[in-house]
Structures are given as C-alpha cells and as structure tokens.
Specification:
Chain lengths: 275, 276
C-alpha cells in the first residue's frame, strides 16, 4: 500500500503503556478521500492508535514504528512541529467531547480557534466562521449558541462543537473517534452526511472509529478490526460485515444483530416509514 | 450477579408509584446577542409529567438538546425546577443540601452521560466504586462487593488500584456502572449508560440490567438514543422533543405505531446492518 497518494501511512505502530503493548504492530494506509473504519472490542487500542497518529499519547507511553502524513514522518517530531499540523492538516474528534473542550472558553471561539491559529483569520472573520460551522453541524440558534460555555450545552451539542472545530480547516486527515455516540439517530444521519461531503469535496482521508457496526457500514468502504492491539482482520466493509473471517469479529457481529432494534412486523406504521 | 436490592426493599408499598413528576419546567437564561437586545431564555424542559411504577423500566428517547439530561437531573434532585414537583415514593425530592437527600440516594443511583462526570480523576477505581457504599453506610463487606460489581461489568478486579485515565472510554463507562450498582439501588437512572460500549460488552450489560430488573425488581430510567436498548429493557417509552414529551406509552406500541411525526422520523433514521 506504499503509494505517494497515501495521506496517512502507519507502519508497525507500537504503543507501550504500563508494560503492555496496547497497540502491537498496527499498519494501515489511507489515500485522499478514503474512508477506513476501525472497530474492535472495548480496550482493543482504537483510541490509542488515533492518539498516536496525532502525537497526543498519555504521559509515559512509549511509541515505535512509523506514522507518515503526506510523506512526512510524525513520530519523534517536535511538539512545535506537531502542533502546527494539528487542527490544520490533521484533526481529531475525540471520544469524550467534554474533556476535549475548554470549560472557560466560549464554544464559538473554540470552533474557530484553528482558523485563527492556522489561517490567520481576524476576530470578526473567525466569529462569522464559527456561526457558519455551528449551523453546518445543526446546532440550534447558532448566533446565540456560539456565545455559550460548554457546560451550557447538551452532550450531543458539545459533541457537535468538537466536530465543527475539527472540520474548520478542512483537514487532509480526520480522525473521528466515536463521533456520533452522543447523538440521536436523526442528528447522527445529518452529521454523517456532512462528513461524507467533506470527504468528497475536500478529499479528506477519514479514519472512523466506532462500535456501531451499522454506522460503520454506512460510512466506510474499508474496515480494520482490532483486538488486543493487533489488526486481526481487514477488507472491504461489506465483505467483512457479511462474512467475517475472524471468530472474534463474528462474535461481535452476532452481538450486534442481537441488540439491534428490529423492525416490527411488516404492515405496521414503523415498517412502512422505514427505508 | 447476586441480589442487588435486598436491603432497599423494606417498606415497599404496593401500587404507589416510585417516581411521580408533575408539571416540571426548567428554563435557562442566555447571554444577550447584542448589548441592547433582551437576554434570551431557553426552555429546556416545559411541562413534563410522568410516573414510574415500582419495578418498571422507562426509556427516554429524543432529539439531541431536547431536554433529556435536564429532566434526569430534575428527577434526581440535582437541579431545581422553575415549576412542578418530583416525588419519590410519595416524598418530595428537592435539590438542596446533600445530607437532606440521603434517604433518596440510598435507593436511586445514577450513571451520567459523561463518565468523566461520574468519576473523580484522583480516586482509584476501587475507591470510586466503594465510595457510595461508605457514604451511604451500606452494611456488609465492601471489598467483596467492589470485586463482585467489577466482575459483573466484565472488568478484572485487579484494576482496583488504577486511575480512571488509565482506561479506555468503554472501560470508564463500565466503572461508572459498577459504582452505581454497588449499593444495590432500587432504581438505576442512566443517561446514555451504554453508549460507549462495544456490542458484546453492551449485550452483557443489558443482560445484567435485565436480570436485575426481573429478579430484583430494579427500576430503570434510561435515556438512550439506541432504540435497541430501549426495546430490550424498557416496558415504557417517552419521546422527547423541544422540552416536552411528544409521545408516551408502552414501548411495543410506540415502536410499532408511532403517532408523532418526530417519533416516526426517529424510527426511520435508525441505521441498519447489512443482512448476513
Ligand atoms: N494511560 C494509560 N495507562 C495504562 N493503560 C492505558 C492507558 N490508556 C489506555 N490504556 C489501556 O490501553 C488499552 C487500549 O485503550 P484504548 O483507549 O485505545 O481502547 P479503545 O479500543 O479505544 O476502547 P473503547 O472502545 O472502550 O474506547 C486499554 O486496555 C486501556 O486500559
Ligand atoms: N446550564 C445551561 N445553561 C443554558 N442552557 C442549557 C444549560 N444546560 C442545558 N441547556 C440547554 O437546554 C437544552 C436541553 O439540554 P439537555 O442537556 O437536557 O439535552 P439532552 O436531551 O440531554 O441532549 P443530548 O441528547 O444532546 O445530551 C439544550 O438546548 C441545552 O443547550
Ligand atoms: Mg476508545
Ligand atoms: Mg443529554
């Protein structure tokens, strides 16, 4: 998979924490406009893989291997170099939005911060952009909402603030870690469509981490399954979900089908209005 | 897991509802958009009335920002309504001094939407799970109980000495669930309690809650955007939008014949797995 077109190339990535290789030799590549899903059981190393790419691993983590963004090696790079890229060329939607937001800063400023830092937006231009981005992620009453602090928003609204901030600079690489877990399905559908447009229009490469297999089926074309820090299965999303080769992937799918809400019998109102 | 509520059972009286919320209203004042404009008001919850029978399970679904978490905070006495009342087994639940609601906290435990809100980062997992046992003066061997609930949520009891930040998102959420179940509550209120869990752990936790509900009449109030969770655990469902309950009823009825257009849109938007 070594092509010059690769936006992201991760090779033999290892993250050691507390004496354990919590990421244990992970390799994958992502081309411009490509959407790769990363699934796997809780604690399998999905978030740490994304954080390693971003250079934001917890203190005490030891990392080896290679992470190349548009050909440039990121591992071992200086903090200054990395923070210049973060928010501009690569952005992440974090799994827990409330920990990603600054409680003392109005959300509008947090949304437009990347534009001021990396694109030289004036205060006024950034304020206008914040309202536009808030509107794009479906936040209600955006003019007023941008003036709120994070604690004044609902969980799903906070998550959408993080999404807006990550999309602000139309990054070459977007790492989305459970980006819609706090959203109801109607808002989720809008956000997924928005991410789809970003990928199509800006050629953003998308790494999409989720435990929702129906969502991963809708969003991604390729899939990698992690277990205990290793990739145990990769392939076209449809193929993996239809006929998983790895027994653990099979178990995951069986559980998903079991807990999925099933349409009531045909003929009822719900069955008629469903796609 | 073993009996979750044996000591909370005393004094239960038959038909009286556990929770009774009447005419709840909560609004927030908002920043002005201009120095001369009026301050705005956001009606987070407007005129919500609901009842939960003993041992019943209520699912609350609805749009992001529709007021679900606000309603939950009002039910728990963590916030004061502008109007309306909450009663638990006939006694008023009024936000105020924490000591005054101790009787209530012994019976009603909560898992918040954001695990960070349930867990103190400076407290080890063992201490966090044991804390409600100590605070509420629950009798019995606390160490043993901590191990038991950790195992019930599929965590190795050996993790007791570690801190919350050393865990993955789904592991943290399970720690919060273990902490809430530790004192054997009579009612568990969960705000998206399983949203961060992978499907197999989720199935296991749903089984656990289902068993507790069935065998020990654990009451449930679950906010969830996952209709699979609600369909599986909750006999009652309430659909919330713009601060009001737009539809309420038996889960099977509402899911098979949703009356309100928003409820229909919600059902139609559920993403589906491709068939095997
Ligand atoms: N700071 C840390 N110190 C020690 N171990 C850690 C630390 N952070 C995470 N881990 C461990 O690393 C493993 C992988 O964590 P990671 O957060 O990547 O999981 P995940 O796949 O994202 O899971 P989830 O679906 O629950 O979010 C977990 O077993 C976790 O306990
Ligand atoms: N402290 C506050 N100050 C101002 N507005 C608030 C405050 N807390 C909540 N709100 C607003 O009240 C409304 C209801 O919020 P709530 O958190 O109850 O929604 P929710 O249904 O739980 O949404 P989600 O599914 O996104 O978590 C939202 O519009 C939110 O912005
Ligand atoms: Mg994670
Ligand atoms: Mg909420």
């Amino acid at each position: 998979m070594t092509t010059d077109a690769a936006v992201l190339e991760v090779t033999d990535l290892r993250v050691r924490l507390g004496g354990v290789d919590v990421v244990d030799g992970v390799s994958f590549a992502l081309a411009a406009g490509e959407r790769l899903g990363l699934i796997g059981e809780s604690g399998s190393g999905k978030s740490l893989t994304a954080l390693a790419v971003l250079g934001l691993l917890p203190a005490g983590a030891r990392v080896t291997g290679s992470v190349r963004l548009q050909g440039r090696e990121l591992l071992g790079g200086s903090d200054r170099e990395l923070s210049r890229l973060r928010g501009r060329d690569l952005a992440m939607i974090f799994q827990e939005p409330s920990t990603a937001l600054n409680p003392l800063m109005r959300v509008g400023r947090q949304i437009s911060e990347p534009l001021r830092l990396h694109r030289g937006y004036s205060r006024q231009a950034a304020a206008r952009a914040a309202v536009e981005l808030a509107t794009a992620v479906g936040l209600p009453d955006p003019q007023r909402l941008v003036r709120s602090y994070p604690h004044e928003l609902s969980g799903g609204q906070r998550q959408r603030v993080c999404i807006a901030a990550a999309l602000a600079c139309r990054p070459a690489l977007l790492l989305a870690d459970e980006p819609t877990t706090a959203l109801d399905v109607t808002v989720q559908a809008e956000i997924l469509a928005l991410l789809g447009r970003l990928v199509a229009e800006a050629g953003t490469a998308l790494l999409f981490i989720t435990h929702d297999l129906a969502v991963v089926a809708a969003v991604t074309r390729r899939l990698a399954v992690l277990r205990r820090g290793r990739v145990v299965e990769t392939g076209a999303t449809d193929d993996v979900l239809r006929a998983p080769a790895d027994p653990h992937t099979r178990a995951l799918l069986a559980a998903a089908r079991l807990t999925q809400w099933n349409l009531p019998a045909a003929g009822s109102a719900a069955a008629r209005t469903s796609p | 897991m073993t009996a979750v509520r044996e000591q909370a059972d005393g004094g239960a009286t038959g038909a009286e509802p556990l929770f009774e919320a009447t005419g709840l209203v909560r609004s927030y004042r908002l920043a002005r958009t201009s120095p001369f404009g009026p301050p705005g008001v956001r009606h987070a919850v407007r005129d919500v009335t609901l009842r939960l029978a003993d041992g019943a399970a209520l699912g609350i679904v609805g749009e992001s920002g529709s007021g679900k978490s606000t309603l939950v905070r009002l039910l728990l006495g963590l916030d004061r309504p502008d109007a309306g009342t909450v009663r638990y087994r006939g006694r008023p639940v009024v936000a105020g001094r924490p000591r005054a609601l101790r009787w209530f906290r012994r019976e009603v435990q909560v898992v918040f939407q954001d695990p960070a809100a349930s867990l103190d980062p400076r407290m080890t997992v063992g201490a966090a799970v044991a804390e409600p046992l100590a605070c509420l003066g629950v009798p019995g061997d606390h160490d043993e109980r901590v191990d038991e609930v950790l195992r019930a949520v599929d965590l190795d009891p050996d993790v007791r000495g570690r801190y919350p930040h050393e865990f993955s998102g789904g592991q943290r959420q399970r720690i919060a669930i273990a902490r809430a179940l530790a004192p054997r509550p009579r009612v568990l209120v969960g705000d998206e309690p399983v949203s961060a869990l992978d499907v197999s752990v989720r199935a296991q936790i749903l089984d656990l809650l289902g068993q507790l509900a069935e065998r020990h009449r654990l009451g449930l109030v679950l906010v969830s955007h996952d209709l699979g969770v609600v369909a599986r655990l909750c006999d009652q469902i309430a659909v919330m939008r713009g601060g009001t309950l737009v539809e309420q009823g038996a889960t099977a009825d509402v899911l098979s014949r949703p009356a309100h257009p928003y409820a229909r849109a919600l059902l139609a938007a559920v993403p589906r797995l491709p068939p095997p």
